[in-house]
C-alpha cells in the first residue's frame, strides 16, 4: 500500500522587495517556483512514503546587489532576506532538525568561492539549501532526534 505524506512550510519575506525568487524541490520534482511578495506564503506537496531516500532543496534566486544596503564602512544596514519556517513532515515540526542537518551552499552572491554553511532558516544569498532524509519518515525521525 502506498501512503501519501504531506510536506509543508512557510516562506516569509519581511522586506519591501518582491522580486526575490524561491524554488522548492523534493527529489527531482520542483513543486514551488515563484517570487515572494512581502508577507508569508504557505507551500506544500504530497509524496509517497515508500522506503527510500529523499532530498528537499530550497533555492534562493534573483538576489542582486541593490537588495543589500551598506554604510560607509561596508556594514549591512538593510538586507532582503527570505525565511523558511514551520517546516513539517506528516504534521511534525522539523525546523530544529532542518537547521541542524541542512547544508546551505552559496558564494555570498558572487563575492567569494562557493562554500557550505549551516542553515539557520534564513536565505540571504543566492544558493541552495539541501536537506536529506529517508522514509518511512518515523524511523528516520527516531534515528535523528
- What strand line-up does the widest sheet have? 3-2-5-13-10-11
Multimeric status of the protein: single chain
Number of helices: 2
Q: What would you call the structural class?
A: mainly beta
Low-confidence stretches: none
- Domain module tally: 1
- Measured between the Cα atoms of the first and last residue, the distance is 27 Å
CATH architecture: Sandwich
- Output the CATH topology: Lipoxygenase-1
Strand content: over 45%
Backbone CA Rg: 16 Å
What best-fitting shape do the alpha-carbon axes yield?
A: elongated
Which CATH first-tier class would you pick?
Answer: Mainly Beta
User: Based on DSSP secondary structure assignment, what is the total number of beta strands?
Assistant: 13
Helix content: 10-25%
Order of helices and strands: EEEEEEEEEHEEEEH
Q: Major beta sheet, specifics?
A: 6 strands, antiparallel
Mean pLDDT: 93
Which descriptors apply to this entry?
145 residues; mainly beta; Lipoxygenase-1; 6-stranded antiparallel sheet; 5-stranded antiparallel sheet; 2 helices; 54% strand; elongated
Structure described in brief:
By secondary structure, the chain is mostly beta strands. The chain has helices spanning 95-101, 137-144, and strands at residues 4-13, 21-26, 29-35, 39-48, 52-61, 68-70, 76-79, 82-89, 92-93, 103-106, 115-118, 122-123, 127-135. The chain is elongated.
